[in-house]
Design goal:
The chain is mainly α. The chain has 20 helices and five strands. Helix 3 packs across helix 4 and helix 7 packs antiparallel against helix 14.
């Protein structure tokens, strides 16, 4: 803490910007299938996307959720970026700059309101910069990611209100959480925290003001649905009913799923020790708005049978603020906890390096880019349904088609035709060695270490997470 006290916070912020910029430059991966199928293909390529095409008539997403990505993609096109892949990179870059800037601003505001010293502020910022789950997840074009800074702002302004009791800070919290609701509807449950807070303080006029403002924003957010889809808050109704009726088709995890995942991703075992009753009491009282936000989030998301780890992305900054006092407590007696701290730092940095600089779904992205650069390839034969899909939205002028094939059909292919190619997943190379004998290896599209492990642990559900090898009869 003594060394951090001597470092200017400006330098820490510059370090943070450098780290996040490095992640953006080196990591173009996609974290989730929904990120591509419900998001990217709606606004990339920008040349053929439109506002009307953002939302399908049977979609459960709000018409407003994809607009930020769509606008950035259109802006990139207006500036002459015609390659869909680089339009995608423009989207994640612009949105990430906005996300990270807002979160840094929220953290600095929290530090000011909490009257943290420079060293304490620097520690909080460093937690956010190097926490293993933050840089990659918060720089993806996912609804969870773009909603995260607004939920953080809402919680921090709520904290400000709780300390000083100014109505304006409470109303700003309501505004921020309303933006968050527009970007990811399930987070609207967290708005209740900012209605409960004035009740806890027995400020009845503030309760009414927050309630009426929240109701106004709720009505405002439902109006686009009325004109686009025919009924008020149609998207909200659809997503709730869909999750209730079909959620079990995607899994049926325990109600303890999210508490368990939070326990793991925050590396809580390293923080288990005896804390004073006074510290725990003060922490519970001072950080109650953050606890309310997390509690409401976990409550709602635990009601539905399907539960995904990525949903937690939206509350990562809030969780770090909650964890900060415990790290500070341990650092105050660093000599007594040297082994604990070294182990915590080592594990976190290992995970940080792997998560931040080893792109996910890289094989699918690289193969699509390769095919886009080789329009002479007209047919790509695939075996065993691998790959099931690639990121075709990143191809500006698609010239090829996938052909489901088998050894008998491949025996009839004229491999002197450079328009013919075959793609094989690495696990099947040995099995089909006779088919590719004499063919040229045109490209290898690899996956990261985590995806390799995921395939080994569960091959059936992770077929897309294998190295892809592209062969043809021609050198390229």
């Amino acid at each position: 803490m003594l060394n951090l006290q001597k470092i200017k916070t400006t330098y820490v912020l510059l370090l943070g910007l450098f780290v996040y910029a490095l992640v953006l430059i080196l990591n173009d991966g996609l974290m989730a299938l929904d990120e591509y199928w419900v998001g990217v293909i709606r606004y990339i390529p920008a040349q053929v996307s439109s506002v009307q095409g953002l939302i399908g008539i049977d979609d459960v997403k709000s018409p407003l959720q994809l607009l930020p990505m769509y606008w950035v993609a259109q802006l990139a096109l207006a500036f002459g970026v015609v390659d869909p892949y680089w339009q995608y990179r423009a989207v994640i870059s612009v949105l990430s700059v906005l996300n990270i800037s807002l979160i840094f601003y929220a953290f600095l505001k929290f530090a000011k309101v909490a009257r943290l010293e420079r060293g304490q502020t620097n520690l909080l910022l460093l937690m956010f910069i190097f926490y293993f789950a933050a840089p990659f997840t918060l720089t993806r074009p996912m609804f969870e990611s773009i909603a995260a800074p607004w939920l953080t702002l809402a919680a921090v302004w709520g904290y400000w209100y709780d300390r000083e009791g100014k109505l304006s800070t409470l109303l700003w919290s309501v505004f921020f959480v309303s933006v968050c609701f527009v970007l990811r509807q399930q987070l609207g449950i967290c708005a209740l925290a900012f209605v409960v807070l004035p009740l806890l303080k027995k400020r009845w006029n503030h309760f009414l003001a927050a309630g009426f403002l929240g109701l106004f924003f709720f009505i405002l957010a439902g109006i686009p649905d009325y004109f686009i889809r025919g009924s008020f808050h149609e998207s909200l109704i659809k997503i709730l009913t869909y999750n209730y009726e079909h959620g079990s088709e995607y899994g049926n995890q325990s109600v303890l799923f999210y508490p368990a995942v939070i326990f793991v991703i925050l590396l809580i075992p390293f923080f288990i020790k005896k804390y004073s009753k006074e510290f725990l009491k003060n922490w519970t009282r001072e950080y109650r708005i953050f606890l309310l936000v997390v509690g409401l989030f976990v409550f709602l998301h635990s009601l539905f049978p399907q539960k995904w780890e990525r949903f937690l992305i939206s509350i990562i900054p809030v969780l770090l603020i909650l964890l900060y006092p415990f790290l500070e407590q341990i650092l105050q007696k660093a000599t007594q906890h040297k082994t604990r701290l070294v182990s915590l730092l080592s594990l976190n940095m290992l995970l940080f390096f792997v998560a931040s600089f080893f792109p996910a779904q890289k094989n699918l992205i690289d193969m699509s880019r390769y095919l886009g650069q080789h329009p002479e390839i007209k047919q790509v034969h695939r075996l065993e349904g691998t790959p099931e899909w690639i990121t075709e939205a990143f191809i500006q002028d698609k010239q090829f088609e996938f052909v489901e094939s088998n050894p008998e059909l491949l025996a009839q292919v004229d491999w002197s035709d450079c328009g013919q190619a075959i793609v094989i997943g690495h696990p099947y190379v040995e099995r089909f060695q006779g088919l590719i004998q004499g063919l040229k290896l045109n490209g290898r599209f690899n996956v990261n270490v985590i995806e390799q492990l995921a395939f080994k642990m569960n091959p059936t559900r992770n077929l897309r997470r294998v190295e892809l090898l592209l062969y043809s009869g021609c050198e390229r």
